[in-house]
Each structure stands twice: as structure tokens, then as C-alpha cells.
Amino acid sequence: MIILCDLAKLAKRHLLGAGRDLRRSASLCYDSPRVIRLYHVSKVYPPRFTALSDVSLAIEPGEFVFLTGPSGAGKTTLLRLLLGAETPTVGQVVIGGRNLVRLGRRGIAKLRRSTGMVFQDAKLLPGLPVLDNVALPAEAAGESSKEARRKAFALLRDLGLKDLVRRYPRSLSGGEQQRVALARALVNEPGLLLADEPTGNLDEESARRVVELMVRAHSGGATVVLATHDPQLLGAVSGRQITLRAGHLVDGGAAAE
Ligand SMILES: Nc1ncnc2c1ncn2[C@@H]1O[C@H](COP(=O)(O)OP(=O)(O)O)[C@@H](O)[C@H]1O
Ligand SMILES: [Mg+2]
User: Fold this and answer.
1) d(CA 122, CA 201)
2) Is residue 203 within 6 Å of ligand 1 at its C-beta?
3) Pairing relation of β-strands 248-251 and 240-245?
4) DSSP letter string over 47-71?
5) Distance separating alpha carbons of residues 211 and 159, to the nearest angstrom
6) Ligand 1: distance of its center to the CA of 51 in Å?
7) FRET label pair with 14: which of 50, 75, 120, 136, CA 20 to 30 Å apart?
């Protein structure tokens, strides 16, 4: 799949006249996913609350990983460390051989462009229609406004959300908003998709459709890390479970053989 994606991307870049079908299939290809390693990571929030304590773990490229554990276990903190939004107090976070602590602001900005993140609440911008909400990260990554919209439209179409493109977030259901948020997280074709309890506010059917989109991103080659304590989700997709409790890793830290 990844090889096919690479070929499609190459063709898109070099053959201006590439057929519509090729461009269509290229819209669900992701950056090469990278190896993720945490070495003895602790996170202490000031003044002295330990949210993560000596966590070491490995996630291989293309894995689908559930991050589980009760509220307060440290799931969000771990995702924020992977996003480069927090720095570890102790230890190293290494993605694709790069130590995030040493990356600097530019390096982190670059990393963010190849990382998609979805939150429990969709966090869409209320003043922009769906198409613009999804196009925004592509523009921020340097695409022209026209190209960003073209990409956003192709992705929304591929994800079955075409009918929503002109709607404003407040007119969408929670489930629709969350699927749009997922499209926004995928528009730059990230190698890593992080999702923080994205189905926490949704009914069962909407949750299923959101998870379906994450599974598609995973089949397109992305590594997916999904924080949830919903047992139904855990049963719905096959993936490794990493369990945290009160900041400690209690299970699943090593990558599957
Ligand atoms: N910015 C912060 N400042 C202080 N404490 C925090 C901060 N963020 C999270 N915490 C605390 O760290 C612990 C872990 O939080 P979090 O990572 O959000 O867990 P989870 O996502 O598993 O519910 C919680 O007890 C929380 O109150
Ligand atoms: Mg959380």
C-alpha cells in the first residue's frame, strides 16, 4: 500500500496530466510513518504533580495503538509529548530518530505538519465553512489557498463528507463535526495520527463512523495512536493496547513482534 501511495505521489508530482483516478487515490496516502520511542519519560507539572512516571515504550511505523487507562492516567500528556506540545521533564521522546527535545521550534513545527491530532471536542473554527476548516492546515503548511481547498475537497469527498463542504460547524451533529475534525487532521497526509478520546461525546453509531475513518488512515499507511477508555472501541479494531495508570505504564509498552 505504501509503495502504491509513493508511486501515486510521484506521478502526481511529475505528470501534470495525471488522471483524475490517480489524484483521487493519492488523496488517502500518508507520509512515511516513523518509529516512535520513549525512553524513561517523566512529566512533572508545576509545582510538583507527576503526570507520567518513567514511561518507556516503542511504537513501530504503521501500528494501530490504543492508549488506555482511567481518567487522570496521563493519556493526554503522552499524546501532547508525541505532538511536541509538551517537553518531558526527564527522559527522551524520539520520533523517526529525532530527539524532540533537541528539535527546536522549527523542527517541532515541521514535525507537527506530519502529525494529525484530533481531540474529544472537534475544535472546528465556527466562522469558517467545513471546506475552509479542513483546508486550513494545508495552507498553514504552505499550499496555495486554491490547492489547499482542492486537497480538502478531494479528502472530504473520499471520506464520504462531500455534502458537508459548505456547511458551518454549528449546523453539524457532534458525529459529523468529529469526522470533519478527522479530515482536517488528515489533510496534510500525516504519517502519525493522534486521537484523544475522539468518540467520548458521541453516540455509538457516530463513534463507529469516526473509528472507520481512523482505520482508513491506518490502511493508508499512517501510524495511529488512539487514546480511549471506551471498551467498545477497544473491541472494534485490532490494535495493541498500551495501558497507563496514575502516570505509570502498566501494560503493552513493547511493540508487537
Ligand atoms: N497543565 C497541567 N498542569 C497541572 N496538572 C496537569 C496538567 N495537565 C494534566 N495535569 C494532571 O496530570 C494528570 C494526567 O492528566 P492527563 O494526561 O490529562 O490524563 P488523562 O488524559 O489520562 O485523563 C491529571 O491528574 C491532571 O490533572
Ligand atoms: Mg485526557
Assistant:
1) 10
2) no
3) antiparallel
4) TTEEEEEEEEEEE-TT-EEEEE-ST
5) 12
6) 6
7) 136
- Indicate the SS3 state at residue 217: helix
Is residue 36 within 8 Å of residue 65, measured between CB atoms? no
Among candidate residues 167, 204, 161, the one with its CA nearest the CA of residue 182: 161
Amino acid at position 253, single letter: G
Q: Classify the C-alpha dihedral 149-127-216-100 as positive or negative.
A: positive
CA 49 – ligand 2 centroid, Å: 16
Residue 155 CB burial class (10 angstroms; 0-12, 13-18, ≥19): buried
Q: Is 45 in the pocket of ligand 1 (CB under 6 A)?
A: yes
Q: What pTM does this model have?
A: 0.87
Helix 145-158 × helix 174-186 angle, to 10°: 130
Element (H, E) at 183: helix 174-186
Sign of CA dihedral 213, 116, 84, 47: negative
At residue 98, what is the residue type? R
Look-up of cell digits 455534502: 163
Extract the C-alpha cell encoding 147: 490547492
The tens digit of pLDDT for each residue in 188-233 reads: 999 999 999 999 989 888 888 899 889 989 999 999 999 998 877 8
